[in-house]
Amino acid sequence: MLTHEERLEQEVEEKRRVLEEYANETMELRQRLIQIATLIDTPLIDEQPDVGAFGRGAWVYCRQHHKPHQTGWCSIGVHDKIGLGVASAEAAYEKCRAWGLHIYGEGGL
Hints:
3 helices, rod-shaped, 10% strand, 2 domains, 50% helix, 3 strands
């Protein structure tokens, strides 16, 4: 039979072991998250220049297409694009209209 002190020592040792396992698992998860973040920030092969300027999937107004679209699919230079700083197509179109930017298929042209 264990003394009270021996039981306390066993409990402390068990809790120390559990904490060490938790710390190791946490470190592994942190390393995986760093790897994922690195992959997200890594440019794709043949990625369009607007992605570097505005971010992947960001909404821009394209002066050549006369409409807003997300970065990454058209090869028009960055100098012909305006970053919109919005998260959806609806918001992008609203902002273009508010700024008086021509949208292809709406009104003239």
